[in-house]
């Protein structure tokens, strides 16, 4: 049925789950649940198509069709073979399987993939005498097998090629930023086209293009050649065409997006990509080092991805970040500047206090995404006038993202208060807190189970404790051999004396005969 609702799973990058959940909610998703690098929700075929077409932070959209438990690969084979595959596949079609395994029972994901492939092929061989072929690229049906411990979920991959591959990029510089990550960074900042936008280290222009797509509310999937769901047996071409051609939600962008880079080659590549995306009228490009900025456009936001020194190197990496901090402080007053980077040493060289720090993954690198609120004068003056960064974040209700951040922080503080019931108006040290807890635990015990009568004064203390627990051993130095009853004591003493006498003779010989 066209409007039948089913479970859908959208996968994303770590750190962007909340943004993806918000996007899905705006599209009409129901029963939304956030997991690790994924968001699950319920929707119909139309929502499945729209998620692929419109979600900026989704990497892949899956439709679960079969869940089961298995303890080994043979059981996986039997369960998949027992499934009715006629409704999704025929012997004349091709298929591929990708396995994702998080389990101690299944240590080899490739072997799991082979067994699953064999199960589907053997199902058709027994039923029809023919088997569908396996095709690694552009298969008619792409399957995803996810195994967590002994829980297995088999899903249809509706996206095919990863959704971060938008289709507008015709050239790229070294180590370009992922399109999904670029869109996520912009959405994390809360910017949606209400002011000017600048990226002074734009590289191949990915952040600029994603900003233009967000500002005009253009669907990022319109550049793709196809989606995997277009090859499904129940594909509704009329429905998808209506969604693809619907531009009613697009909007006017009355500000400007500025991009620059020190490399003429990077700017040339960025210009090609921007032209391919059809966003040239919104973006102003120029070859310009960041340190040559003498003024900034009024009413703007800055988001950039400078070199980390990992894939893209710099002769003076720390000096680069020191220059960034200086330019922000002196040129971009009144701006919110968002910077993603990898090394704490680099952030420290910026020399500015961040208002927000968010952990993000850029490929395999654990990065931080920091917001700097650029103001005139000293931070103490700024704090007196506005309450500082924390107070501003608390009072601000400009975006749903900031609201969620503060509520989450409040909930964490409430949990912390419950975990530390011994905090009063005057803070205690760790030792005092631990002692109070032990005292209260002791007083809660019944009288007959207490080890001592008074919890505040131990039973053993002072001289009584010394006599009970401390034993003093008299030294054996100075004793005669007859006074010590230890076996071998005299032999050991004589041996030590002989060794010392021998050492003295050697020293004396060296002094008298230095040449020898």
Description:
The chain is of the alpha/beta class. Helices cover 39% and strands 18% of the residues. The chain has helices spanning 17-27, 45-54, 73-82, 109-128, 179-189, 206-216, 237-244, 264-277, 317-331, 344-350, 379-386, 388-395, 400-419, 430-444, 462-469, 489-512; strands spanning 6-11, 30-35, 38-43, 60-69, 94-102, 133-134, 141-148, 151-157, 196-199, 257-261, 283-287, 300-304, 336-341, 356-362, 365-373. A hairpin with a 2-residue loop joins β14 and β15 (365-373). α9 (317-331) packs parallel to α10. The termini are far apart.
Strand content: 15-25%
Continuous helix count: 16
Strand order of the largest sheet: 2-3-1-4-8-7-5-6
The chain-level mean pLDDT equals 83
Cα-atom radius of gyration: 35 Å
Number of strands: 15
Intertermini distance: 105 Å
What's the helix and strand layout?
Layout: E1 6-11, H1 17-27, E2 30-35, E3 38-43, H2 45-54, E4 60-69, H3 73-82, E5 94-102, H4 109-128, E6 133-134, E7 141-148, E8 151-157, H5 179-189, E9 196-199, H6 206-216, H7 237-244, E10 257-261, H8 264-277, E11 283-287, E12 300-304, H9 317-331, E13 336-341, H10 344-350, E14 356-362, E15 365-373, H11 379-386, H12 388-395, H13 400-419, H14 430-444, H15 462-469, H16 489-512
């Amino acid at each position: 049925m066209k409007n039948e609702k089913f479970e859908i799973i959208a996968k994303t990058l770590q750190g962007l789950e909340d943004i993806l959940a918000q996007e899905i909610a705006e599209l009409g998703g129901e029963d939304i649940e956030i997991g690790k690098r994924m968001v699950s929700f319920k929707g119909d075929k139309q929502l499945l198509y729209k998620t692929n077409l419109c979600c900026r932070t989704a990497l892949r959209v899956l439709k679960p069709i079969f869940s089961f438990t298995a303890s080994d690969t043979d059981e996986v084979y039997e369960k998949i073979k027992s499934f009715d595959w006629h409704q999704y596949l025929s012997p004349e079609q091709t298929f591929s399987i990708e396995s994702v395994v998080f389990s101690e029972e299944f240590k080899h994901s490739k072997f799991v993939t082979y067994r699953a492939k064999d199960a589907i092929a053997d199902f058709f061989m027994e039923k029809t005498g023919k088997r569908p072929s396996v095709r690694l690229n552009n298969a008619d049906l792409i399957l995803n097998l996810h195994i967590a411990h002994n829980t297995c979920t088999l899903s249809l991959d509706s996206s095919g090629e990863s959704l971060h591959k938008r289709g507008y990029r015709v050239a790229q510089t070294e180590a370009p930023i992922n399109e999904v990550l670029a869109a996520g960074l912009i959405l994390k900042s809360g910017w949606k086209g209400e002011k000017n936008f600048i990226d002074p280290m734009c590289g191949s222009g990915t952040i600029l293009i994603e900003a233009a797509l967000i500002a005009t509310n253009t669907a990022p999937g319109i550049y793709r050649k196809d989606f995997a769901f277009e090859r499904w047996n129940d594909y509704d071409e009329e429905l998808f065409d209506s969604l693809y051609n619907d531009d009613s939600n697009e909007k006017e962008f009355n500000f400007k997006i500025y991009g620059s880079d020190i490399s003429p080659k990077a700017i040339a590549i960025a210009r090609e990509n921007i032209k391919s995306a059809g966003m040239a009228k919104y973006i102003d490009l120029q070859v310009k080092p960041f340190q040559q900025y003498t003024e900034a456009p009024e009413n703007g936001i800055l988001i950039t991805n400078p070199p980390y020194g990992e894939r893209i190197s710099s002769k003076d990496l720390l000096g680069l970040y020191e220059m960034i901090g200086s330019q922000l402080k002196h040129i971009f007053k009144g701006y919110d500047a968002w910077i993603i980077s990898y090394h704490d040493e680099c952030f420290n060289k910026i020399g500015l206090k961040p208002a927000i720090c968010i952990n993000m993954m850029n490929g395999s690198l654990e990065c931080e995404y920091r917001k700097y609120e650029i103001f005139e004068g000293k931070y103490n003056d700024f704090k007196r006038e506005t309450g500082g960064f924390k107070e501003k974040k608390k009072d601000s209700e400009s975006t749903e993202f900031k609201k969620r951040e503060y509520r989450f922080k409040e909930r964490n503080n409430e949990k912390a208060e419950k975990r530390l019931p011994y905090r009063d108006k005057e803070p205690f040290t760790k030792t005092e807190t631990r002692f109070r807890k032990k005292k209260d635990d002791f007083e809660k015990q019944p009288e007959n189970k207490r080890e001592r009568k008074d919890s505040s004064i131990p039973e053993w203390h002072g001289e009584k404790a010394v006599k009970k627990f401390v034993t003093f051993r008299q030294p054996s130095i100075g004793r005669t051999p007859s006074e010590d009853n230890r076996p071998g004591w005299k032999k050991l003493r004589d041996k030590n004396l002989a060794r010392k006498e021998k050492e003295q003779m050697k020293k004396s010989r060296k002094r008298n005969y230095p040449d020898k």
